[in-house]
Design brief:
- The chain is an alpha/beta fold and 135 residues long.
- It has one domain: 5'-nuclease (Rossmann fold, 3-Layer(aba) Sandwich).
- Helices cover 54% and strands 16% of the residues.
- It has six helices and five strands.
- The protein has a five-stranded parallel β-sheet with strand order 3-2-1-4-5, with helices on both faces.
- Helix 3 packs antiparallel against helix 4 and helix 5 crosses helix 6.
- The chain is globular.
- The protein starts with a strand and ends with a strand.
- The relative contact order is 0.22.
């Protein structure tokens, strides 16, 4: 079964109907049909909330989080081991700390990262990435 790690970039693109939203919608449909599994770090979940809060306000941020809960995306806590792996990535690559959690989770679960964030290109070929493209 295909496994995905949903980056905040992907979920924000979906909720704001930005380029790549169609691909995220396909993945979400496959989750609902139980043809794939998806995971998200609580750090990336928080990033979805804070970015929406900053850009759209608390009411919209709460609605987005409520919609996100409807999808079978397993939230993964940032325990010591995951945080350690994310910190090592942050020390090695010049990418956002939250992105390091998505990458670390991807490595832990042997899952494909779903994102359109160009910062992930700095990881090279070490990680499997489903790149979001324009509609």
């Amino acid at each position: 079964m295909k496994k995905y790690v949903m980056d905040s970039f992907a979920m924000i693109a979906f909720f704001e109907d930005e380029p790549g939203a169609d691909r995220v919608a396909e993945i979400l449909k496959s989750l609902m049909a139980r043809k794939a599994k998806a995971y998200m770090s609580v750090i990336n979940w928080g990033e979805v909330y804070c970015n929406t809060l900053r850009e759209e306000g608390v009411e919209t941020a709460e609605k987005v989080i409520e919609q996100l809960r409807k999808y079978p995306i397993e939230l993964v806590d940032a325990d010591l081991k995951l945080t350690y792996e994310a910190a090592k990535l942050k020390g090695r690559y010049k990418i956002a700390y939250a992105d390091c959690f998505a990458a670390a989770l991807s490595r832990k679960l042997n899952a494909v990262i779903v994102t359109g964030d160009p910062e992930f290109r700095k990881l090279g070929d070490e990680y499997s990435i489903q790149w979001l493209k324009a509609n």
